[in-house]
Amino acid sequence: MNEGAQESVDGQDAHAARNRVGRPGFLTSSVRVFDFTLSEMLWSRRTIFMALVAGGPVALALLLRAFASFAWLDFEGRVDGSSLEVTGPAIFGLMIWAFYLRFTVPVLGVFYGTALIADEVEDKTLTYLFTRPISRGAVLFGKYLAYLVCTNLVVLPSVVLVFFIVVPMSGNIGASFPSLVVDLGLLGLGIAVYGSIFALIGAWFKHPLLTGLVFVFGWEPIGTVVPGYMKNLTVAYYLQGLVPHAMPQDGSMGMVRTVLQAFQAAPSISFNLFWLSVILVVTLLGATRIVANKEYVLEQ
């Protein structure tokens, strides 16, 4: 190799080395993306939608509290003289399962998770992110972290409000409080898992929102009730398997358990947590891998 060619190779190597030294690591890049994404996400129109969705259970809880105040609904255990047990902890447990796990968490996961990359493509701003000296995968991961913080900041306070509105009507707050803590952790896990799935869908599919809605309102309801192994391919199956363990263990839970019995088997807690963790890790890694390697075409 002649001297000129050797100098050219050395110069290229030196330039590549400078790029590697000047380029921040994956976590540092993710934190930077998280920092400027969170403020945008908190003040977006989607957050208004999220607040309305999370406020629905609060409004229902206030309505139930009003019924109890006017003695239209007896929270000591009877409804219009029937034998159905209705206590504050039982109603709270049912709201966690029906309103939050089965509707609020998946819907927010769809509208936020699919938009992490799709919105940048639609607004034609993805190029500005990808030309920064950070890895592409860090862009997705940082935006995912912002999604986690934003959704938890809205959903979890809503759950706490519902708890303190409903449970005191006929229940010991102190005895039920540990279940509230478990419920908050369960919802946080659901937000994380659904977000990672829809981040993958948003990075992969051309029309991710439609695909996500089909998954939430089509595949999951069908898969959880059809006999066989289809339920193992749904997130709802593993989440609802944790619900009975997150509810107060007292005699008032007959109503809720009767409702849940039609929808789930009884896998162990460790079984559910293991597969939810697998889904979270695999889909999030898959999403970052796709973003790192896919060539996005911005339509004019």
Low-confidence residue ranges: 1-21, 76-84, 248-255
Give the number of DSSP strands.
Answer: 0
N-C termini distance: 47 Å
Strand count, sense and barrel status of the largest sheet are:
none
**Beta-strand proportion:** under 5%
- How many domains? The number is 1
SSE-based structural type: mainly alpha
Number of helices: 13
Name the features:
disordered N terminus, 0% strand, 13 helices, mainly alpha, 75% helix, 300 residues, single chain
How would you sum up this structure in a few lines?
With 300 residues, this protein is an all-alpha fold.
Q: What would you say this structure looks like, in words?
A:
- There is one protein chain.
- The chain is 75% helix and 0% strand.
- By secondary structure, the protein is mostly helical.
- The chain is globular and about 60 Å long.
- Residues 1-21, 76-84 and 248-255 have low confidence and may be disordered.
- It has one domain.
- It has helices at 3-22, 26-42, 45-69, 88-113, 115-122, 126-130, 136-166, 173-204, 208-225, 235-240, 243-246, 254-261, 269-293.
- It is built from 13 helices and no strands.
Layout: helices, strands, pairs:
Layout: H1 3-22, H2 26-42, H3 45-69, H4 88-113, H5 115-122, H6 126-130, H7 136-166, H8 173-204, H9 208-225, H10 235-240, H11 243-246, H12 254-261, H13 269-293
